[in-house]
Amino acid sequence: MNSEIIELAEDLSSSPLYSADLAPVPKNKRTWNMWSLAALWVGMAVCIPTYILASYMIKSGLSWQASLIIIGLANILVTIPMVLNGHVGVKYGIPFPVFGRASFGITGIHLVSILRAVVACGWFGVQTWIGGLAFYAIWNSLTGSDGTPELSIGKFVCFGLFWLVNMYFIWKGTESIKWLENLSAPILIIIGVVLIAWSANKAGGFGIVLDQGEQLGKPSVVMHEINGAIMLQLNPLLNPDGSNKAAEFQVSVPLNDGSRKALGWIPILNKFQLPEDPEIDKGSLAAGKKPVVVQFRTGETIKSSIVNVSITKLTDGSPSFLSYILWLTAMVGFWATMSLSISDITRYASRQKDQVAGQFLGLPGAMVLYSFVGIFVTCATVINFKDILIADDAPWDPVSLLAKLESPTLVIVSQIFMIMATLTTNIAANVIAPANAFSNLSPKKISFFGGGVITGFIGIIICPWWLLNEISSILIFVSGALGPVLGILVCDYYLIKKTSLNLAALYKIDSEYAYGGRNFNPFAMVALAAGVLSALIGYWIPALEIFYHLSWFTGVLVSGGIYYLLMKSKIKQ
Q1: 458-471: per-residue pLDDT in tens?
Q2: CATH number listed for the domain at residues 27-201+325-461
Q3: Is the N-terminal amide bond of 236 cis, ω within 30° of 0?
Q4: Which run of H or E residues covers position 362?
Q5: What is the pLDDT of residues 22-48, one digit of tens each?
Q6: CATH architecture type of domain 221-303
Q7: Which residue, 245, 341, 363, 440, could crosslink 96 as a Cys pair with Cβ 3.0–4.6 Å?
Q8: Can you give the pTM of this predicted structure?
């Protein structure tokens, strides 16, 4: 790859496509090195979503080892396009919206850059709400409040406070962001190591803790119908010595008259058959219309949460190959947006080897480390807390874990670290890209700070206190929608333009990137539509489900391939 730095030789300050914030960063102002970029990725990777990533896979039946391998592989895969797209930032010093003008056109880029911005705004709101909850937890620890109700004026005040902290770093600019990431990265790594050591010591050993991982992957209760009999498989958690943490369980069944009947507290069994009682509405149970309700308790009357269970088909319990592919795609989708806009950050580096080494050093390792921290600490809670009787009650997220700590000092210190982790992720991952995208809509009127403020207000408008529990479900959809964009960008930059861009033309309204006065590249739009359709068609057509499971990979290959063929045919003409 040609790694020379190209600087702007013309004065284009009068162009409507030019602004100081979108202009190429001159070499003498590029202060980010390998460690700055590695620190950036550590700061972004250490967040609550990373902490709980493996939990989703473990709950679906994957082992903790397989979960970590998928997370590591996915992040190595996604770092490759990070590095490829990061090249243009170092070489030309331009942000993503300006880079995208080369392939999509000077206005065509708005479609994809705003899509990327809207996704970031959603995450910004959610992360800001989480950071606000950390402030709220500190307030409760100082005042002795119990933190109720679920939505309160105090929570919204703390949300506003954390929002203002984010706005401060946006106002101060990218150098303050670099300072924040460099300061936080070593602290966050140390915290991860300390959490592992603390959990192992408190639980009685490293190996003992990891032995609990298999338990957390089992559903607490499974119900099957076998030859007309309804059987319950009970899987309460076990103590390290193999004994059950729960002593008894209770089953509530639906009756034909619409009421429910509790069968009383029964000593723990591995398997339990529902009695042959004509009053039990077995028809509704078999059809999945009404659940059986199960609860566990200890001899000390500590009760588990209530588990609603419906009849499932008998399987060997092993996850299918397709489920591994699905999770791989989802994990790639976790940073799919950043793989598009990484030049927003690498434009502040002056050497290609810094951006390559920094990204490979920072991203995969940090993601695996903090996913492992989440696994290890949660496994340790199974031993350390007597009130966790079933896998459903394991505190996978740090907020639930911190709620179990009795020491106000521990709560306050841990919440400060959570604020730091949330802030570093939010600023770098969810502010820089949308701020540049909004600025690109009207470079003369919207500055980087103005774009950041727009991002902040959208983060409020989307009501993140409602979106918090839903946003993780859009990972695959987002990767399917944004994979095609990546395919077009990489194909155009490397295969069509051979990494050679007309830097000045990117800021001119009548240049080659206006694509004959249309201001958008029709070939890019056709390729984009084809890639999105091919990636998401499996969502609507079950027979083509594999394309949806591979949405990111499908979108990259289809859009990149079609774009290459269309552009090559134009060049030959």
Answers
A1: 999 988 888 766 65
A2: 1.10.4160.10
A3: no
A4: helix 352-384
A5: 999 999 999 999 999 999 999 999 888
A6: Sandwich (2.60)
A7: 341
A8: 0.88
